[in-house]
Design brief:
With 137 residues, this protein is mainly α. Helix content is 67%, strand content 0%.
Length: 137
């Protein structure tokens, strides 16, 4: 299956000047940067509730989860994967093992290796899945 066949007209998709893989990856990165930028801007206008590293790390990981959710279940349900993961993180017991720290990466301090690496892996996997496969139809 070619990566260009995601629109209504396959012949029209093939004439695009920019291939779909870099276009989709750029869209996901731009959306993640916009969300992080808005959060950091709002934070700079009032009381600082989180560090910049925390906002950037969590925005990157959540962006990857949204992209992965779109690739797995379509654009209209892309929100379900990050919502389910965040819900689990809030109701799970305190993380004592590395797997639990990886599952609760959103709530760990910004300097933690498990949180940073988990967010980075989710970002890369999510962007790659969405860029290659596109949103599920």
């Amino acid at each position: 299956m070619s990566d260009a066949g995601t629109g209504q007209d396959l012949a029209l998709d093939r004439t695009a000047a920019i291939r779909w893989v870099p276009r989709r990856a750029a869209h996901v990165l731009l959306a993640g940067a916009a969300v992080a930028g808005v959060l950091l801007t709002v934070q700079s206008m009032g009381e600082s509730m989180a560090t910049t590293a925390f906002v950037v790390r969590d925005s990157a990981g959540l962006m990857g989860l949204v992209a992965l959710g779109a690739a797995l279940s379509g654009g209209q349900y892309a929100w379900t994967l990050p919502f389910a993961w965040l819900s689990f993180a809030f109701f799970a017991p305190p993380p004592t093992s590395v797997p639990m720290q990886m599952a609760m990466w959103m709530l760990l301090p910004p300097g933690s290796a498990a949180g940073t690496w988990t967010a980075l892996v989710l970002m890369v996997v999510g962007i790659a899945a969405y860029a290659v496969a596109g949103p599920r139809r």
